[in-house]
Design brief:
Layout (H helix, E strand, L loop, with lengths): L2 H4 L5 H5 L22 E5 L5 E7 L12 H9 L2 E4 L3 H4 L3 H10 L7 H4 L2 H13 L12 H15 L8 H11 L4 E3 L3 H9 L3 H17 L2 H12 L2 H15 L1 H21 L7 E7 L9 H7 L3 E4 L7
Parallel strand pairs: 2-5, 3-4, 3-5
Antiparallel strand pairs: 1-2, 1-6
């Protein structure tokens, strides 16, 4: 599975920003059975509790309503933490920040970075999507790769504006619950922009290859998230990424998880009440995930999943 798909569960900025190429999302509506949540409860001192919820940054309207487990965690939370604060995520300047980071300043054009076959694929994609490649010529490959991938996923009904993060940000605002971010948009954008040239070219190549293969991988990933299938998500996504792209996995997953831990532990101190933390699902899985890192430090951690007990 291409690692462009894995960014959907690891990096909010890359897949939550609706670029000018994307249409507005539909309003969430009732549909199928609620998704089985990737939700864990961490017990701190004197009743303080942290609920860790694995997000999918692009969802469909019929992925709502959420399960009763998530609703209870939300209702009982005094505050919500996200990868990025709602203020940053909803800032009109965010898309501009990302675009500014993606602009080339080396005097080269996008075509100069790509092999002929990839350039032809990009031209074909541009023609099929009413996007002249001349509009992309001055952009870095990482940004173009994300644009291609997001556009592909939105065509199958997945949309950043329907993502779990945005949904819960809106609910928090309506309920007047305090919110905060675990990191800044600038740090996430810098992480994308600091990819090596080889990583950027590979990201774009894989995004274009996925267009040619169709929607099966995105569908499998979305279905696994809906099932709450942490084993499949770890085995087929996180563990594979760790093997094939260890440097990128370290920067995008492990280092950020480690950076979040001190803040999360503060909310487990006595008298802090309940906190709901909503981050990309892969941040919670495996030995490098936040769940196991907190368990290793002596906290009681249990999965909350009513549907799993049936």
């Amino acid at each position: 599975m291409s690692w462009i798909k894995r960014l959907g569960l690891l990096l909010a900025t890359g897949l939550l920003i609706a670029t000018p190429l994307l249409a507005a999302a539909a309003t969430p509506k009732a549909g199928k059975q609620p998704p089985v949540p990737l939700l864990w409860k961490v017990t701190g001192a004197q009743g303080s509790e942290l609920y860790l919820l694995g997000s999918f940054h692009l969802l469909k309207p019929d992925d709502y309503p959420l399960s009763s487990d998530v609703d209870r965690a939300f209702t009982g939370a005094q505050r919500l933490l996200f990868e990025l604060s709602p203020e940053e995520m909803n800032s009109p300047e965010l898309a501009t920040q990302m675009m500014q980071a993606a602009l080339r300043r080396d005097g080269r054009q996008l075509k100069d970075d790509l092999d002929p076959a990839t350039w032809r694929q990009l031209e074909a994609w541009g023609a099929a999507n009413n996007m002249p490649v001349d509009r992309l010529a001055g952009l870095e490959p990482w940004f173009v790769g994300l644009t291609v991938s997001i556009a592909q996923m939105t065509r199958q009904g997945l949309d950043p504006k329907s993502g779990l993060d945005r949904h819960l940000m809106e609910r928090a605002a309506q309920a007047n619950k305090p919110t905060a971010g675990l990191e800044s948009a600038a740090s996430q954008i810098s992480m994308l922009d600091s990819m090596s040239n080889d990583e950027q070219r590979q990201l774009l190549r894989e995004a274009l290859e996925q267009v040619e293969k169709g929607d099966e991988q995105s569908r499998q990933l979305h279905d696994a998230w809906r099932r709450g299938d942490d084993v499949m998500l770890w085995r087929d996504m996180a563990a594979q990424m760790k093997r094939e792209y260890p440097g990128l996995y370290q920067r995008i997953n492990v280092e950020r998880n480690d950076a979040w831990l001190p803040s999360l532990k503060q909310w487990l101190q006595p008298g802090r009440g309940n906190t709901l933390v909503v981050v990309g699902a892969l941040h919670l899985l495996g030995s490098d995930g936040v769940v196991e890192k907190l368990r290793a430090q002596g906290y009681k951690v249990e999965r909350i999943c009513s549907a799993c007990k049936r």
